[in-house]
Design goal:
3-stranded mixed sheet; binds zinc ion; Zincin-like; 241 residues; alpha/beta; 4-stranded mixed sheet
Amino acid sequence: MGPPPPAAPPAPVRPAAPAAPEYELRRSRRARRITVRVDPDRGLVVTIPARGTIRDAEAAIRELDGWIAPRLIALEGRRRRAAAEAADGLPFLGLPLTLEPQDGRSRVHRTGDRLLVPGDEQLRGPALVAWYRARARDEGAARLDAAAAALGARYERLRITDTRSRWGSCSSTGTISLSWRLLMAPEACLDYVVWHEACHLVHAHHRPTFWALLQEHVPDWREPSAWLRENGTDLRLLLPA
Ligand SMILES: [Zn+2]
């Protein structure tokens, strides 16, 4: 037996490459180039042209890391905050309602500041959305009727939508659309959006005459408008686990 073989030299230490963030890869026939975005619901989304490769997508992520990283961190923070809030309850016109799961229940029912919700988690989300939609119709219609009457204008119908980036709209045919998600924001936000769209029944543009009319009826419209701009992406229905 000879002397023990010399210990193998330690493997060279390579600087640890930062882990690539998770991303959703989308392939688009219409895309001409690679686009990278941080979506409030889906996280990092990379869209590549039909002939693009995963390698192209990952090269784009590396190249844009300085842009992507802070946005993913901000998104994660917003998700955590929203999830923590949802664990206690869900906001309704800015007030928290406590969720009370009940076995055998299929629909949501509000009693005071409590929301009785299906115990079955599969049913809970859709039942809550249905409940918010119905409330958006009640609350939206009452406000819209009052605003239209005050303006001496009339609308054709109220449509409840699911958009997050567009709280309301007013079509040239007089259909007013409101997102049910507005019902999760403070009440002043719903008032503001209803009045904003109602003023479009009179002025179908954003020229100074439009803003003057809005100002006349909702003097402090700037605050809810800023609130929606700032917090809008948090108005997702996040259900406690
Ligand atoms: Zn507008």
